[in-house]
């Protein structure tokens, strides 16, 4: 019985994988490193973001890397779209008065810009943006919103999302629309694996609780 969902942003609701790969490669080449293929990126990219860069450019401050990334990323904004089932899923949640929370490492400007562009802000109960480590932040989100752990699910496309859900003692769902491939997500042993949010919607509909 799921009454609340905590959703990742990139790769779960928004399709920004290719723009992020392009921007990350810009950061890497700016630091004298070779570019990564899409396959290499999906296999190697991880959160918290500092872990991804620490082994590659330990001599460059995280703040500098973020500055380079945020200068380049807007150049690719036009390529970013909602994932196919996002709007239907959010409408499904709204119709059932479910709590919809965002837990994302995206910076506030990116989140606000994309939310306005796609017109989905009205479906979000509360966003938590710019999170460095979701496994630490999850407890704050749950406690601040008085969420019943047995009725809350973390939905995301990366190992870190499943780690965060497990750290919070809530249900977990991995979606295959984003950054980590199936084998990496399956290794995390989430409660549910869905190809996309449409499948998750079907699952929740089969197990739904009528909200008053």
Report on the structure:
With 212 residues, this protein is of the alpha/beta class. It has helices at residues 17-30, 38-44, 49-54, 62-72, 86-95, 108-118, 134-144, 159-168, 182-186, 197-206; strands at 4-7, 14-15, 81-82, 99-103, 126-128, 152-156, 171-175, 192-194. α8 (159-168) links the parallel β6 and β7 (171-175). α1 packs across α4 and α5 (86-95) runs parallel beside α10 (197-206). The longest helix is centred in the first third of the chain and has 14 residues, at 17-30. The two termini are 14 Å apart.
What helical percentage do the residues reach?
40-55%
N→C terminal distance: 14 Å
Q: What is the number of E strands? A: 8
Topology order in helix (H) and strand (E) letters: EEHHHHEHEHEHEHEHEH
Total helices: the number is 10
Mean pLDDT: 95
Low-confidence stretches: none
Radius of gyration: 17 Å
Structural class: alpha/beta
The main sheet comes to:
6 strands, parallel
Strands side by side in the biggest sheet: 5-4-1-6-7-8
Shape: globular
**β content, as a range?**
5-15%
Keywords:
10 helices, six-stranded parallel β-sheet, two-stranded antiparallel ribbon, about 210 residues, alpha/beta
Short description:
This protein has 212 residues and is α/β, with parallel strands linked by helices. It is 45% helix and 14% strand. The model has no long low-confidence stretch (mean pLDDT 95).
